Amino acid sequence: MNGTAGNGIAIDVKGLTKSFGGREVVHDLSMQVKRGSIYGFLGPNGSGKTTTIRMLCGLLTPDSGEGTCLGYDIRRDAERIKRQVGYMTQRFSLYQDLSVRENLEFVARLYGMRDARGAAAEMIKRLGLSGREEQLAGELSGGWKQRLALGACTLPNPQLLLLDEPTAGVDPKARRDFWNEIHALAAEGLTVLVSTHYMDEAERCHEIAYIAYGHLLTHGTVDEVIAKSALTTYTVTGDDLNGLAAELTGKPGVDMVAPFGTSLHVSGRDVTALETSIAPWRDKGGLHWQKSHPSLEDVFIELMNRSKDNFQ
Amino acid sequence: MSATDISDHGHDIRERFGFWRRSYAMVVKEFIQLRRDRVSFAMIVMIPVMQLLLFGFAINTTPHNLPSAVLLQEDSDLARSVLKALENTAYFRFTREVHDVDEFDNLLKSGKVLFGVEIPRGFERAVRRGDKPALLVAADATDPVAASAALGSLGMVVQTALQHDLYIGDPPEMPFEIRAHARYNPAASSRLNIVPGLVGTILTMTMLIFTALSVTREIERGTMESLLSMPIKPVEVMFGKIVPYVLVGFIQAFLILSIGVLLFGVPVLGSLTLLALLSTLFITTNLAIGYTFSTIAQNQLQAMQMSLMFFLPSILLSGFMFPFAGMPVWAQYLGEGLPLTHYVRIVRAIMLKGATVQNLQYDTLALAALMLVAMIIAVTRFRRTLD
């Protein structure tokens, strides 16, 4: 049907740049997302995740850069992209003064679905919202609102879902259900691009990308991202970890010191420098040192610290 | 890619009549939202009824029973006749009788009376002698509208009184004076002029505000982001937002006209169908202008301010409040650019003069042109992205 369908790439963009009022929000961003995969988009607040997603679905025009979304040019074919993309906004953006059923019927009609009522009724059943269909969307709880929003953007059978922090402010049970639903949709062949702050959610993605200050810093599978970081991490347990953390911070080769529950993660990219710096404490009594793999969070926090120095 | 490609994906989506289906989706949504918004819904009925009752009863450019004072310096039959005659015009109501000039002046200055009538000493005798004595009528002319009609009636009223009571003056003048008197008959009420104009004024206000808020509200509530990510076109959004209010405007026009006819006795001499058709055109023009404001304004407050900026000149320059022909030429040109100007002419002509569509060609075309211009601006101004 179109150029890139055959090679299985849903999103393929190069050099996307966008500024608002002279401030560059997204800088030279390139990414590829495979069809049928769940692609996690991570990064601190204000890093340009929302702006990138909006450029992908035609809500914003990039200042420079080019690319395709589902084989359509993101600059010229915004209208066609809109037909096949479901976009779930960060803030609930369905009509609060319309009921669950009315919201879904509105979406179904806008997309020209043959049986808008039937499609809405089916979706209500699928979402488990039966019995609430006449409730106003504004009166739903956070978790239900989020389910409804997901339902509304999957209703017209899109090929690509763009979800902007869909689980912000939602309880753990609802989050788990939501992710099960996303995996079910991906299994049906849908491509999902989802932005999130949660590490556990990142680990449920097939691929992830980390973006900070408008720069895409790393991408790949979780294991690839960890391997690429070239980070060596020691986990320390024992007494007075706070004191130890204070002493280690800023030593050569120690890029990051972060407490994790009852242990302390000490990480650095330069193994030799790191080991030289921690040597004096290695044999100290009451401390237990163990060389371990960095967690995804270690990698991201280290990336964030580094990018802060580079771009701010 | 073509329509068949989309259905190849197994999506049950139709491409034909897309415009109508998407506009319909928008119309249904707007109707539901309107129904849920109790305050707006109440406004649809309350605004026309309240305004019409208020203005219909309150605005009267030929006021009556204006408080007046009399300084009576002689107590003669003739003086009493003159006062009686003045009171019979129904313009004057003598609320005070004063005895010196200072008191007379103070009452006028303080606004306690609008008129003062002074009948000088030796008035009757001077009249009998043919000396043409002066009868002073001082008016508080700060409100010229209130004063002028009453002042205009004075001359002949006094003469009539004199002729009736004292058989003085030229009998041949009688028929002329009676005719002149009829011109100021209370039956020539300004309501006949005001009620038709009010139909247009009230519609302008409500229609402008309803659509002026429509797009900015979606932006402020955050729903615009969702709407823009869906395959709907600017024209379809506009149609969806205008159509429900055409019906609302129609209901309002019906309410106002019913009250005008039933309560104020305003006739509808011309064709009701023509009135309904042209009213619909006028309603749509205003909705299109309001919608245009909505696509320009950044938020609901700005949209509201723009509506007021448009509403005020509409009232003042349309010929609703002041005679159009009396305005300077530049103001008349400005007035021609306002839909209310044309509608006030149309509605007055149909209701009071029984005008037909042939008489109203110019104003009808002007309304249609204004509507088209507003719609074109709105569709081009509508932001399809969040840039």
Give the SSE map.
The complex is a heterodimer of chains A (312) and B (387).
Chain A: E1 9-20, E2 23-34, E3 38-42, H1 49-56, E4 64-69, E5 72-73, H2 78-84, E6 85-88, H3 100-110, H4 116-127, H5 142-154, E7 160-164, H6 172-187, E8 191-196, H7 199-202, E9 207-212, E10 215-220, H8 222-229, E11 232-238, H9 241-248, E12 256-260, E13 263-268, H10 271-282, E14 287-292, H11 296-311
Parallel strand pairs in A: 3-8, 3-9, 6-7, 7-8
Antiparallel strand pairs in A: 1-2, 1-4, 4-5, 9-10, 11-13, 11-14, 12-13
Helix pairs in contact in A: 3-4, 3-5, 4-5
Chain B: H1 3-8, H2 18-36, H3 38-58, E1 66-72, H4 77-88, E2 92-98, H5 101-110, E3 115-119, H6 123-129, E4 136-139, H7 144-166, H8 174-183, H9 191-212, H10 214-221, H11 223-228, H12 234-262, H13 272-296, H14 300-317, H15 329-336, H16 339-353, H17 361-381
Parallel strand pairs in B: 1-2, 1-3
Antiparallel strand pairs in B: 3-4
Task: Give an overview in words.
The complex is a heterodimer of chains A (312) and B (387). Chain A is of the alpha/beta class. Chain A has eleven helices and 14 strands. Chain A has a six-stranded mixed sheet, with helices on both faces. Chain A has a four-stranded antiparallel sheet with strand order 2-1-4-5, with helices on one face. A four-stranded antiparallel sheet of chain A has the order 12-13-11-14, with helices on both faces. The longest helix of chain A is centred in the middle third of the chain and has 16 residues, at 172-187. Chain A is elongated, with a radius of gyration of 22 Å. With 387 residues, chain B is mainly alpha-helical. Helix content of chain B is 67%, strand content 6%. Chain B contains 17 helices and four strands. Chain B has helices at residues 3-8, 18-36, 38-58, 77-88, 101-110, 123-129, 144-166, 174-183, 191-212, 214-221, 223-228, 234-262, 272-296, 300-317, 329-336, 339-353, 361-381; strands at residues 66-72, 92-98, 115-119, 136-139. Chain B has a four-stranded mixed sheet with strand order 2-1-3-4, with helices on both faces. In chain B, helix 4 (77-88) links the parallel strand 1 and strand 2. In chain B, helix 9 runs antiparallel to helix 12, helix 13 (272-296) crosses helix 14 (300-317) and helix 13 runs parallel beside helix 17 (361-381). The longest helix of chain B is centred in the middle third of the chain and has 29 residues, at 234-262. The two termini of chain B are 27 Å apart. The interface between A and B is large, with 43 and 39 residues.
